[in-house]
Amino acid sequence: MNARCPSCGATVMPRSRFCPTCGRALPQSPPRPSAPPPAAPVDPPIEGALTNSKRLQISGDTLDLRELINVVESSVRWWQRGLSSSDAVTREQAARAIDELSQIMRSLSQQLAQGRTTIRITRRLPALRAFEVVCPSCGGGNRANARFCQRCGALLNAAPRYGVGSVQPRALTFHVAARTDTGRVRQQNQDAVYTGEIDLPGQQKAYLCLVADGMGGAAAGEYASRLAADVSRAYLEQESSSRLPLTDEAWQALLRDAVRAANRRIYDAAHADAAHRGMGTTLTIALLVGDRLHIASVGDSRAYLLNLNGVTDDGAPSAQLTSDHSLVARLVDIGQLTPEQARTHPQRNILYRSIGTDPSVDVDTRSEGLEPGDIVLLCSDGLVNHVSDEEIVQIACGEPDPDRAAARLISLANERGGRDNISVVMVRVEGGRQ
Questions:
Q1: Which of 236, 325, 329, 382 has the fewest CB atoms within 10 Å, measured from its CB?
Q2: What is the pTM of this model?
Q3: Which helix (H) or strand (E) covers residue 292, if one does?
């Protein structure tokens, strides 16, 4: 909720230190209290992806009810395999999952019987800040009509920032850390992470970060995530060195092509070797170019933007930049589950979109502006299943060293059970004058 300046009455953004209209210093709100720890962990779920024909097509803000029922039915069939396991714990877990899915199926079927064919999605990704003017003193972003910098109080000129798609509109620097951990339950680490620079024409650089979370058995999952990382990285290195995208749309198209190249390679490998049959992986990529952030994602590995000064239009300190392509995420959308229930739900690892399970794949992309003080964070679901978004902000923004912050996040996830592999990539954005 935006506040008002006590001196001139103008609207100001949450956490602004100076009024953009009159330049007066603003009173600062006390820090938010830390969030309570999440619920106690449960047994690790079986991982898997839905079959080729089970896709969810989301049109605007609505979800087709029949498609959702098909996805739930596919998930029931997947869990039925666990009933024949020689392990009693796996059988019990599968039975519990089928029972919960059956209850969801009954609820959805009743809505369909009443003539309802679509469901409105209520949970959407947040709208991020839109800062068009850069402060010549501190490099911070401000709205187009601001006269004074909301961060340092300096008088602004009317010149807007460089055009969207420019490669180096501001001299930002990136401090990067990447860590991955097996956790306390899994025997092998099927996550893959990568960070590194990419050469662009004209001796310019972009910074590439990615997280992939493999599935399909220990060896197959590890192979799938590593292959996704290697193929997408190589594709981006080759294509961006010869041609420079000039717009956000062009960068997003390049990322989609890189992800689809990885998808095709993994799909072909899975069908060429019986040992890799059914393998797949998530893949979330962040490409930092100048003061622009370009994201591509498939699956449920996440990308966040964090900044205590606010990253959304209403001043929230964190924003999830990616959608989870999972069954439970869609059930949260339509009110069948709460976000808290989704964190420990038996079906939380069942994906309806992943890399390598289909010959083609839909890729989510977006682009956002970066500001000094921002933190870009990528992670696998092994982190967010144990650590809340509020705790991620508290640790990532409170620890100046990104490597120590990543280590603390992984340690906290392990303290709460470490049910899955845990990966964190963190980029701290710093910069100054234009």
A1: 329
A2: 0.79
A3: strand 292-298
